[in-house]
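Pilot study result, target chain (265 residues):
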Amino acid sequence: MAEDRTAIRGHRAWRITGTSVVALAVVCGGAQTWGLVVQQQRTSDRSYPVAATRVHLDTGSAAVQIRPGQPGRVLVTEHLDWTVRSPRVETVFDGDVLNVRMRCNQVVPVVDLGCGAVIELEVPPTAAVDGGGSSGSIDIKGLSGDVRVAATSGAVQLSGLSGPVYARTTSGAVRATGLTSARVEVHATSGAVDLGFAGPPHAVAVGVTSGEVSLALPQGSGYRFGVDRGSGNGHIDPRLSNPASPDTVQVTSTSGALSVNPVDG
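Predicted structure:
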């Protein structure tokens, strides 16, 4: 009888030990699998022999970079990373208009399991850009076409543009350098606006609810300034002020510092 109880206890101990080993194997295997999942990345590129005249963005949380390329070609490079499901990037032409769209295909929509994309575009130098994203950044450089972009919480970076510019953000910053655009309009709810010009603009309009505004305008140029401000420090270099000028700078700010100075050098 004692031998039977000993055998039963041994059998139970074996079952407990065996169950623990199986559970440990499942946990370890799951951890290894998750480790492999979180490392998933992919880079790809595609070339299209199309003289695109406009790029329309609907890119969500993706970071977008647009650069001038060859006149009759569009090059798209995608850098994707994800944990469970790969982001989906669509590039569809409607005539000479390139539509770029990115979406994260999450298993559980309310849970962020990791989904990211960087989309690099090389387009004809004269192409226009419109549309935008949500939390993704937008970086555009060296184009001469119209640029009209919007972001919710992502930053907008502009450089070396010569066509008309309109940019809007909710909580992201708008920064520009080397602009030669005649007309620039920027609106930000709670983000900073920092604009640098390489050529004198004809009309600049900036509207900010809460955020700093900094403008760097070409030396020797003069503007009629219209400023409607609430709280915050303000400075406009008097060398840039010319009440008789046909060129205008309008700034509306509820809260935040204002700085307007000549471009250094």
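One observation from the pilot: The two ends are 101 Å apart (CA to CA). A full batch analysis is planned for the follow-on phase.
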